[in-house]
Amino acid sequence: MTVVVFGSINRDLVMRVPRLPLAGETVAARGLDLLPGGKGANQATASALHGVPTMLIGAVGDDEHGAAMRAAMAAAGVDASLVQNVAGPTGVANVFVSDEGENQIVIVAGANAHVAAPEAFPACAGRAVAVAQAEVPAAQVARFFAAARAAGALTLFNPAPASAEGADLIALADVVVLNETELAFFVGSAVPDGDAAVEAAARQLVSRRGQWVVVTLGGAGVLACGPDETLRLSAPRVPVVDTTGAGDTFCGVLAARLSEGAGIGEALRVACVAASLSVQRMGAAASMPVRAEVEAALVVS
Ligand code: RIB
Q1: What is the full per-residue pLDDT of the chain (301 aa) written as tens digits?
Q2: What is the position in ligand 1's atom list of the atom closest to the CA of 10?
Q3: CATH number at residue 279
Q4: Rg (CA), the chain
Q5: 248 included as an active-site residue
């Protein structure tokens, strides 16, 4: 079992604000924290903290943020031997987090724009799950998934942030994980309201037999459309401090459990519980639970 993540590496500049700023408005933050981030690095962290051997393929620049992100990956137990060094700045994200736990994020791609997918999928012991998101060039994600499929790996795509280029990659994934806003973008409709509308929209994205489209619904849980069935799981009710990285926790833990051979229903249940733990703390990767915490929460959920 191995999870191989191809994706972005950012340093998150996190500002805690009483409320998210409106256009043209200046809001005073309570402070600034520099935290590990980037959807690729975050999902790799969630998987590694879940105890599954995890490799990250991405790129950092030749600056202090790159060194900090390499240190963060090492601390999380992520194999970063295939992380590339490029000249120039590491990716950064400006993250505002409100007292309600909502966020607003603006990213600067930096080194992420220059990452190259490897020619061949890395050698993995046992079942492998290949994971990617949309903060790195779409052509490189396509190359990564092609190599992963040729090597027999399961592919999991989180098309975030939603973009036209990402739409072409959805068919390459065995499991697609996206939220309601991203779902609306890809099917070209308003954000679906209610389970029936979410299911109808999600089914439009299922492009081949065996593919699962998983829609994360925040505090309302998850709805997953598979070949012959629809699964609907609720999320534990918890106090929300910061939702940044909750989707990444979900994807990383889902990939980790699928690499261990768990069925999709069980893997989704564990991923939901892991995400509900992450929203109770500040930060993206900084908020992610270790496996023992998830196991303990599963007992009471
Ligand atoms: O999903 C959360 C992440 O999105 C943040 O860590 C930020 O870096 C952006 O990539």
Answers
A1: 999 999 999 999 999 999 999 999 999 999 999 999 999 999 999 999 999 999 999 999 999 999 999 999 999 999 999 999 999 999 999 999 999 999 999 999 999 999 999 999 999 888 999 999 999 999 999 999 999 999 999 999 999 999 999 999 999 999 999 999 999 999 999 999 999 999 999 999 998 889 999 999 999 999 999 988 999 999 999 999 999 999 999 999 999 999 999 999 999 999 999 999 999 999 999 999 999 999 999 998 8
A2: 8
A3: 3.40.1190.20
A4: 18
A5: yes
Q: Quote the domain boundaries for residue 214.
A: 2-8+38-90+110-300
Q: Which atom of ligand 1 is nearest to the CA of 91?
A: 8
Asked whether residue 102 is assigned to any structural domain, the reply reads no
Q: Residue holding tokens 């990402």?
A: 166
Classify residue 45: in a domain, yes or no. Answer: yes
This prediction's pTM? 0.98
What residue type is 154 in one-letter code? L
Mutate to test the pocket of ligand 1, among 8, 12, 158, 179 (most ligand atoms within 8 A of CB): 12
Which residue's CA is the nearest one to ligand 1's atom 1?
245
Q: Which residues contact 85 (CB under 8 A, 6 or more apart)?
A: 59, 60, 61, 62, 66
Expressed in angstroms and rounded, the spacing between residue 289 Cα and the centre of ligand 1 is 17
Measured between alpha carbons, how far is 212 from 228 in angstroms, rounded to an integer? 10
How far is CA 226 from each of CA 75, 265, 291, rounded to the nearest angstrom?
Answer: 36, 11, 27
DSSP annotation string for 193-225: -SHHHHHHHHHHH--STT-EEEEE-GGG-EEEE
CA separation for the pair 299, 296 (Å, rounded):
5
Binding site membership of 42 for ligand 1 (Cβ less than 6 Å): yes
